Amino acid sequence: MEQSSDKPQRRIRSVLEDPSAQAIARVYADAFLDAAAAHGVDDALEEFGSFVDDVLDAYPEFADILTSGIVGRDEKLELIDRVVQPFGSELFTNFLRVLARHDRLDLLPAILHESRHRHELRSGRQRVRVVTASAVAQSTHDRIRDLLGRSLPFEPVIDSHVDPALLGGMIIRVGDTVYDSSLRTRLHELRKRLQQRTLHEIQSGRDRFSHPTGD
Q: What's residue 26's pLDDT?
């Protein structure tokens, strides 16, 4: 089952919540994917993910140096040549150098996020966020994916999340569109309808008293 990891992520959340950072990250993501395609490097995205997930997260001191605004560009370039170049591909090492020269290494997690998303789009796939009140069985997960696949013009990649506050039902987010069938939302809508009906009855009663029959 495709599910998002609950592992703590360093810097990712705050960066991804910044629209301007997202826009910049998207530009670099497209450039990275274009370069990988032009050079026929099929595992470029896998190498990128391994660097962020297995290196930066595992060695926070190293990550802090790369993303620090205090450490100079030349020092960062030297660090990349000394630490990354012996183990990384030429494509990825050069990509890190470009980011270092433009002071964008702090966007690495965001660029990875966008690269994965853009790669899915280029492959005719798109991530769909599905939130349920509790974890669903694999058979239910497969049924949701199949139903979405028949309804959407692309192959959905299910990104599953659990939110007990929903009580039941689910919320499906496709891009900027949200389909909310959760019990929490239905109860909220029911409460609103009851309030509106009560207000209408009160207003009707006021109208009857202010205009008695026979006047």
A: 94
Other CB atoms within 10 Å distance of the CB of residue 122: 12
> Mean pLDDT throughout 181-191?
76
Q: What amino acid occupies position 7?
A: K
Single-letter code of the amino acid located at 111: I
Residue pair 32/115 in contact by the 8 Å Cβ criterion: yes
pTM: 0.62
Q: How far is CA 54 from CA 46, 90, 95, in A?
A: 11, 19, 18
Contact (CB, 8 A) for 112 and 49: yes
User: b/e for 32-65, b at 16 or more Cβ within 10 A?
Assistant: bbebbeeeebeebbebbeebbeebbbeeeeebeb
